[in-house]
Write a structure and sequence with these properties.
heterotrimer; A alpha/beta (about 450); B alpha/beta (about 450); C alpha/beta (about 425); A: about 450 residues; Urease, subunit C, domain 1; TIM Barrel; 8-stranded mixed sheet; globular; B: about 450 residues; about 35% helix
Chain lengths: ~450, ~450, ~425
Amino acid sequence: MRRKEFPVYRVAKHVTVKVLAGVLWSVPLGAEAPAVYAIRGARVVTGKGPILERATVIVRDGLIADVGAQAAIPADAWVIEAEGLSVYPGLMDALSSLGLPEGSPATQRRPEPPSSAEAERTEDVPVNSAWVRAADLLNPAERRIEAARNIGFTAAATFPMRGILCGQGAVIALAGDRPGEMVIHPSAGLYVTLTTRRGGGFPASLMGAIAYLRQVFLDADHYEQARTIYNRNPAGLKRPEYDRALEALLASPRVLLPASTAVEIARMLRLAAEIRRTPVLYGGHEAWRSAELLRESGVSVIVSLKWPERDRDADPDVEESLRVLEMREKAPATPATLAKAGVRFAFSSAGLTDRRDFVRAVRRALNAGLSEADALRALTLHPAEIYGLSDRLGTVEPGKIANLVVTSGDLFQEQTEIKHVFVDGRKYQPIAISREEGRP
Amino acid sequence: MRRVFQIAAAVCSALAAEPPLVIQNAQVLTVTKGSFRGSVVIRNGKIAEAGEKTLVPLGAHVIDAGGQYLMPGIVDCHSHIAADSINEGSVSVSSMVSIEDVLDPEDIAIYRALAGGVTTANILHGSANAIGGQCVVIKLRWGKDARGLLFAGAKPGLKLALGENPKRQGYAPAQGRSPRYPATRMGVEDVIRQAFAEAKAYRQAWREYQDKVARGENAIPPRRDLRLEPLVEVLEGKRLVHAHCYRADEILMLLRLAEEIGFRVKTLQHVLEGYKVAKEIAAHGAGASTFSDWWAYKVEAYDAIPYNAALMLRKGVLVSLNSDSAELMRRLNTEAAKTLKYGGLTEEEALSLITINPARQLEIDDRVGSIEPGKDADLVLFDKHPLSSYAKVQKVFIDGELYFDRDRDLSARPEREQRRKALVEREREAEKKQPSRTRDRDTERPQ
Amino acid sequence: MKSATTCLSAWLALAAAALPQTVLIRGATVHTVSGPDIASGSVLIRDGKIAEVGVVVKAPKQARVLEAKGLHLYPGMIDSATDLGLAEITSVRETVDIREIGDFKPQLRTIIAVNSASEHIPVTRANGITSAVVLPEGGIISGQAAVIHLDGWTWEEMAARPSVAMVLQFPVIQQTPAERTGPSERRIPYAEAKKRYEARLRELDDWFERARRYQRARQAPASGLRPDLQLEAMLPVLERKLPVVIHAVREKAIREALAFAERQKIRIILAGARDADKLAAELKAKDVPVILPRVLELPLNEDDPYDRPFTLPAALHKAGVRFAFATYSSSFSRNLPYQAATAVAFGLPYQEALRGLTLYPAEIWGLNELGSVEPGKLANLILADGDLLEVRTQIKHVFVRGKEVDLNNKHTTLYEKYRNRP
């Protein structure tokens, strides 16, 4: 049944590819794409509530119109016979730079270096580009978007990643013709790193980077306070200067802070409390040791699916410490531990674009005790919640954005095929499968 | 609601504290109150009693020291262990950075120093710049998190540095970098004077703002400056200055500069030529924390002599010996013994250099540095007299809790080694099963 | 008149000091090291040598008698690895002559670069170190080590063995450059590092092969061979007259070094071998002596027992490996005995520790005239007011080749000067 439908489709695609030399690979079937779909008879893993066996999902105008065994199939719908197939909420990458290709101004250009007189003033260092907004810099044709979509990702939080205060992230749909169309939310949060500056500028150390952050957030608070006082009564007061970086800090709903080890987690939680901003920690490989602390703080964690591995380029005769070995061994147990402790966490795909690698990475967490339901949540509802978008993303429910993955079976089994990916109600065919199976 | 229960539980557990601990039959070296054969009673982490004859409280846990030597935990006034970064060397004034932000409670150097009898350490910023970062006093509570290391109540410190190190970026900048002021000792003085002048202006700006607010005037508060605030704290006596220095001239310069600005140098660190200006140091009231016998590793250390500590002590300076090194930190007791040899200090004086004197220099002598009732039960049990080259640490207590035990260490070794081997093997096995992953082509992605 | 007398007596004293003295040290606890201690013994020094040792030794006429009741007499200590005389102020390159440029420099001689006026020499001597091995450190074949006595107007006078061994820094796999000079020098891939390492090892073998051909050509009549100073310097090594000190720290390097020695049929002495405990049985079987790495050192690996450097001497002793203590330093050379003391605290028998400072290094370096208090040996002797290994012990007298040397040094001078500052 299914096989009948596909070949036509695939031929069409290949023709497109040849004609357009792959540039428009991510544009699906252009304007002819139907606006209404009925995915009929599938096993629907809604991500909330029980799994629906033999249910139908109705997609209309980019949204999920109906879900259920009794869902009425509209007359204008393209029907996808999905008996034996599974429907999942589309996956969401909780932390990425998708859509922001290397070489874009977001990730490359830096402000001019400060004069030497300014160099000692912490606020003038060229590691603050908080005003840079991922939403303004999206490139729909960025190559990694399709790669991510092919393995089931339909949305992603994407961030500029250069500097210390790198810029404002956006939650985007992983498909679209125009940048504006892709943006689900333009303010996902401020991405922060603790990188140091080479070449002698401040900060040149980890503690310098932390001190810098502390000062910058104090500056932002002061900026706001000064503006308020001035606007209330400007008489006799020097006009406060406009500062785009501080404006951006004030506008950001949250900060993403790097924390992989237990020591870093404790360190960043303290910093977040001090700067009085809502933090989301990313990295999280040793969070299994910090579950209690995280639960108490109520802070969410983005766990990277790129599990730490032995450096295969290291000299085999140089002994590695038990500490490092244990961290590597236990990192995949982090998700299970956090789930048990009631700490909200989401996964970042961390650049895994091969489906087998992705499934294996998730399976390591499953093997370490994580339930499939929790794993799915970490890839759907939890990232949506972290970014305050669970009212529109993360589950298969009527009214939500029609981001869906249709698979041949269990999402976290290697042999499972991704049959269709819906982004904003538009259907995409993963090409990885046809390539792998070597079918025409 | 749960919070309330947690607090209640914490209070209860504190009240129903652990049973008292008695270390008896020990050769007790109190450092401040003489030595005797007797016992130390520990209650709630504090020394409750110390004497030749003490009563063993009901239900107490008793350790028989078998005539071994019990001394106060060693205090190291200058260390760089347990921190993920040491120098913010990019600027000449980096007072906004703090070691406390980067404490690493998992640094193995902590355990190793503990095994050498150190229980308290002053963790300093490095000496790359004239005004370095904020320092923090820790206890070597191995196994606790970064917060758990902090010596609660100890005054924070600020590092200053004179001489070769802070001017190096000026006369010999690292490859590809432009020279950084200063390049001479003259410039070092200027940088410090300038920074404190700025701090005074900053303090004045806040005072003026507060006055305006008090008068009901419309005013915008000054921007908080985390670089200058530590200097204001120094001016107000809330933060201790620890100054890295070597040569007599620069030592004298700082004493006079501090007097001019209006603060006291709490400790001169290294201070290898301190013996040349001991009189002036004593008059200023600065402490001196030095090495026992390091010399000739650089020009400003060429006149260093092992008699430095004894000479300064004899001339009325409050002297301590420090390590500045994770290695030396493991044997400060024999470093102290060198002052018996070079300068003829008494045993008690020698021990004071690594216990009560550094505690005084850090203003924590009400808590640590000697065996006296009321003080923290930070104790080290040596098998021989700690000033003997053959002395080995057997047990170390911090707040009455056993943090190092040689027997425990010895018996835990085989299991640790097995665990290591097992992990390595398991990993290699797993690697064999899985071919090397396709290399990540995308370097821009998060970890 | 009075001043003339003073002058004369001063001159006489000086002249006496310059000449080899006949001295009878009487009533000391004599630690012969080679034999049992003598509770109250006497030692007669004549012509720079130990003439007699015993409970009762008669004082010859004109002999100076040194009443040493309550003092302990030991053979002078030997520091088996130092840069004494080669390095004055470590951070000032102009005062440091340890590392030459180039990988194969067997012709270099440390002895001629020993600065006899170095302040380090009297400072070190004042704590009872009377002889030291001075090692070069550059390249692969660094040059020739020397043994010096810590007394003499010139390096020539100080030399005990101008050339005691060839020094070889055994190649290792290095992914990061040893001295990082800038951010441009990045880590190289393991495979590349291994390739470089193997190339260096091959180069080393080739070098020995070249030397061997040179040796053969030299023996052949009328070969028309042009003299080569570098290869010439290798001949004593090939003839097994000169041992090779191989500096090798980790297990792999030590293992490779042993294989290399076997391959090249050379006599070796290991130095800096921090993993020697892992190969103790092999070292014993091959009778390779070890110049101990610094005992007062941090463990090599994070997971090592905290006391691993402290227990290494005991471990080697237990396995029957010959060893000697060393500081690998000039400014810390005076602390040599405390390396041994820590080894005792962590299991090395006291007598063995003492031998590791005296007799064993004498044996390892082939200094038959040194290392114990026995008649016929050089009178390198020290008198201490207590146990030599205890920090608090004061050294009261030091004799080098029978001459009592001045214990004053830069440090005591500055001490006296500033102690008396009003």
